[in-house]
Amino acid sequence: MHQRILHPPRAGAERRRPPWRLLIESRAPGVDIANFDAFQCAGFDVTVCDGPGETPLECPLVRGESCSLVDEADVVLFEPCDLPWRTAVLGALRARRPELPVVVRTAEPAEDYGGCPTIHTTTSVNGQVSALHKAVMRWTSPRV
Question: What is the model's pTM?
Fold first, then answer.
């Protein structure tokens, strides 16, 4: 699992306003070297996880364990990519934190991803930021 934390964690009392902790869960090529300036300018502290590689059991959530990246997130941008077992990772994430807003970025937005809002993989960065803002603003964190 790869992770990159661009900013240190903030106290729970400050989570109702930016910056929000955005977890980008994606196996897309280049995500680990992507520039997330637009997300940061929009009020998100970005952490990246490229998730399990060969099997969903490489993900601690799928094994029934905790994951600090998910536990600390305020919103998740999730990409199922072309691996059919990625839905197991999404299901485990939703089971661990059912209240956590998750936006799914996919080439197949018509599919059902457990009620998560979807955006197309070709959505502009501004469109992605807008979808994340909408998701996080609808959510009232129980950690405040």
Answer: 0.83
